Amino acid sequence: MIEQIYNYFTVEMLYFWVNIGVLPFWFLIIFFPQSNLCKYLATSIFPILLLSGAYVFVLYKAYLSSFDFMGNFSLYLGLDYISKLFTDEFYLLMLWIHFVSINLFVGGWILKDAQKLIMNRLLLTIPLIITYLIGPIGLFIYWVIRIFYAKKLSLYD
Q1: Which of 4, 7, 140, 153 is the most buried (most CB within 10 A)?
Q2: Nearest to 67 by CA among 92, 44, 42, 45
Q3: How many degrees, rounded to 5, is the angle at CA 98 between CA 96 and CA 101?
Q4: Which pLDDT band, with edges at 50, 70 and 90, does 54 fall under?
């Protein structure tokens, strides 16, 4: 049974399940931000634990296939080196899980922070959707909106 599960989760299948797996959390964050499901599932440590498990599984599969982990440090040497890393599907999947995890964490943080400031839910959907798609820009848009609700500009809040 364990071998069947291991064989089922190829790199392509893991990519598919990671993408599908975060959608319910984003759905809760955007459409049901006040619900207990959102509080206990989407904005808790639960999705990060699931994504961490997927990340560890990808690391394990990469290790078994003789992935060059030391070669990952070459990404700091220039764009040519990082483009070579992107040719490896294990590296791409690790990077994708990293990206999806951070965006989901930031989306949960935006929601919690907006609830403290009692922000308009409809106005909040814009930066949340943009954070889901392109994280840093969504966070920036949220900070611009946040300035008007917090009535101050704070760099360390």
Answers
A1: 140
A2: 92
A3: 105
A4: very high
Query: How many other CB atoms are there within 10 angstroms of residue 115's CB atom?
Result: 15
What's the rounded Cα separation, in Å, for the pair 69 and 57?
15
155 in any annotated domain: no
- CA atoms in the 13 A half-sphere facing the CB of 73: 2
* pLDDT tens readout for residues 95-140: 999 999 999 999 999 999 999 999 998 999 999 999 999 989 999 9
Answer yes or no: is 156 within a domain.
no
Determine the 3-state secondary structure of 23 from DSSP. Answer: helix
End-to-end CA distance of the chain: 49
Contact call for residues 118 and 112 (beta carbons, < 8 A)? no
- The residue written with tokens 């291991």 in the block is 6
Q: Which residues 6+ apart lie within 8 Å of 38 measured at CB?
A: 28, 29, 32, 111
